Amino acid sequence: MRRRxxxxxxxxxLAMIPILGFLLIYVVPLGLTFRYTFTATPEGQTWTDSIHxxxxxRYFAAGFxxxxxxxxxxxxxxxxxxxxxxxxxxxHPHLARPAVLIMILPLLIPTFSVSHLVQELFHIDxxxxxxxxxxxxxxxxxxxxxxxxxxxxxxxxxxxxxxxxEAAKLDGCGExxxxxxxxxxMIRGQVGLSLLFLLMDYFRxxxxxxxxxxxxxxxxxxxxxxxxxNHYLKMDVFRVSVAAASMAVLCLLFFGVAALLLKEKRxxxx
Amino acid sequence: MxxxxxxxxxxxxxxxxxxxxLCHVHAEATRYWKSSEPFQYAVAEDGIWLNQNDTILWHQDxxxxxxxxxxxxxxxxxxxxxxxxxxVTENGSRQLLSxxxxxxxxxxxxxxxxxxxxxLEAFEDGRLIALTEEGALYSVYDRDGSMMTLxxxxxxxxxxxxxSVWNRAILAYKADSGELSLLSDDRQILxxxxxxxxxxxxxxxxxxxxxGWVVALSDGKLLKIDLKNGNREEIAVSxxxxxxxxxxxxxxxxxxxxxxxxxxxxxxxxxxxxxNGKILTIVNSVGGHARRESAVKLFHRQYPDVEVVERRIxxxxxxxxxxxxxxxxxxLVGLQDSYMPVSAAFLLRSGAIADLNQVDALVAARExxxxxxxxxxxxxxxxxxxxxxxxxxxxxxxxxxxxIGWEIPDGRWTQAEFRSLAExxxxxxxTAEKPIYLLQDDTFLLPWFLYDYQVNHVDxxxxxxxxxxxxxxEILNFWKELNDQxxxxxxxxxxxxxxxxxxxxxxxxYDLWELRNSVCILPPQQNPDAPFPVxxxxxxxxxxxxxxxxxxxxxxxxxxxxxxxxxxxxFEGQWLTDSSIYDxxxxxxxxxxxxxxxxxxxxxxxxxxxxxxxxxxxxxDTLLPALLSGEIDASRFAAVSQRLADxxxxx
Lengths: 270, 651
What we know:
- The structure holds 2 protein chains of 2 kinds.
- By secondary structure, chain A is mostly helical.
- Chain A has a domain at 66-222: MetI-like fold.
- Chain A has 12 helices and no strands.
- In chain B, 27% of the residues lie in helices and 30% in strands.
- Chain B is built from 16 helices and 42 strands.
- The longest helix of chain B is centred in the first third of the chain and has 22 residues, at 2-23.
- Residues 21-27 of chain B have low confidence and may be disordered.
- At the A-B interface, helix 1, helix 3, helix 11 and helix 12 of A face helix 1, helix 4, helix 5, helix 15 and helix 16 of B.
């Protein structure tokens, strides 16, 4: 009993640093952000008026809309590409190891060093059409982040039980069917993980967007991050806070709903 | 076993944090610049001079790379004064003195020094003091290189091993006797010598009639020495090992690391010992030193315990963060729209800077002024106190004007009149032996006509812009036509633009003194009743300043007659109604009356020249070249400008 208590204390001590770090870097600023959302109202305006004005703002709405739309495009393209790459690696195992190394490499290369190249490749400037700009941003996103997701999926593939796959083949499964009907369901945990990584990376896409288009991108690529960053430089703490808090709420809702659905599914499976 | 190992890791980390907290000192030398090669440095008020491999570099913003100014051969000593660098080169056994401005203009070149110097320092007003190899201090006359020994009654000018100059004083140290003396520039002993052994470098901290302190390096430690009694204390500051050299500006003391590859600085306030009291911080002010000093004196009459500190922050994100945080970092902030990533108009809208109209004392302080505050007013809000002024003024070549038969306008004139002038010049060029240019465009970024359009169609109070008009398209097309006809040129040297001899007009943004030798006219306006955009440095009040009352009072002092009388009217124009307040000996009377009158007209009909930086940059970098090359038409230019403006103003 005493031994277990000591172990618990040790584990608690061990966990304290990351917990403190998380509190300091995430929770406290988030709390302050929520506080500012309610307290930093511009002079001469009531809170409800200010919130109403922000919610009615064309760019605030466009920021959220584009975030969702472009997010679907990025996640869809990124995940499809990752799936395809992992399948190719499964098919050609002798190429897998160098391929994983090459695919991880973009994470180590600063985006800044390739953004100019992408600008040149797509002829990005102020006069470019938004479709070209979206294509450039999508390519940059896929180049940078898809490799990680593909590597996660590939790692899952190679740990699948060979007997199951052999049995499926004996039962007459073709390559496609084997991949989609056998392999994918068996690695759904890693599929979720890779999607989570892609989603997290997508929220960081402002950096790439800023490097390609500056503070004011084409209307269709204006994300809520632009709204926040621009108002940050305008020192409008209220608008920054409202946008950040809205995004946090949206994320919490999203993850909450996802967790509920998963829980329900688990219950049904049992 | 694993747990035990992890346990050790955790306790090691805790131990490291604990040790760090114990070792943490109350001040730390911050690295200002690092290089792979050794370099020399000299400190100016608004930047650092570096000498690296006989290349003189000027480093104004720690945010950017240093800029190469000039090259020399075997540069041995450098010293900074204002925006001038003095440097000594060795040519055989001779030492030659040269100087260069931060804009690259040479001042003096290769003046032979009378005696070989061991150390050279410069006062703010350009006077040079040298330490010779024999250990004596000399005044150096930069025009002929002659040197005169500093004879100070009661002080022996010999055996000096280190010295520094600051403000109006010289600090001299003699290593063999340990004698440290503070001398005034008018050859008096300010503080009788104190004896401190083993000092290598010395620098003046602060002094007045009754007290004073200096800093010195001794065995790699930084000492603060009281000049009155010789008491010394070690400053708890982490210095680079074997630091070498101590030079300073108003806010910081700089030193090099032992291999001369890293420059570090320590804020003076960290050494001064005043940090426990209240501090009023002014950031990035560009107003004159005399005005500020005068305001500080007035301020201290009411707030003797509040220290006024100046800071320079090059990174606007830091300003943004500190302003928003309302921390004690910024009470008053100097703004210049073209140097900030965000216009003052946005800061006013977001409530980051205060509307000074709400402060009755400040409104009352405007009474002795002429009606010049349009330049710092957006809508009905007064957002800052003016510090410096530049305006769009045009210069004329009167000889060419006579040649083509054009009567120079005396007051306001319109763009329609300018168009007929353009036709006149084009007609003249068709038959002339030597064609002339209509306009040399030295305006910052965009042509004048676009600034003028902004005055009438971009409203920073309501945050709206109207670029989708026929007027705008017409102006753009007109500008393209002028360029296509070859009637527009640029200055040969854009850093120091001078008017080309074959140019009728030159458009630029100037201070008044730059126009003293020119025949000037007002720029042509679309709407002849419209105000003129004025660009300058202004001092704004952080709306969330924890020292709000003190900051407001400082601005009141800054606006006072006593302080503003130091604003040089030959540069900025006459701001005060009563001209007798100004120094009668100033150069005002050497200015052309007509030019001064035109300047007045603009000054009292002014609005601030505000920038939405991203729009202007995109217009200048992308849209204007595309328009002039024919890649896009004027309507597209207008549409893209409108899109950017909608986003910037509407978000």
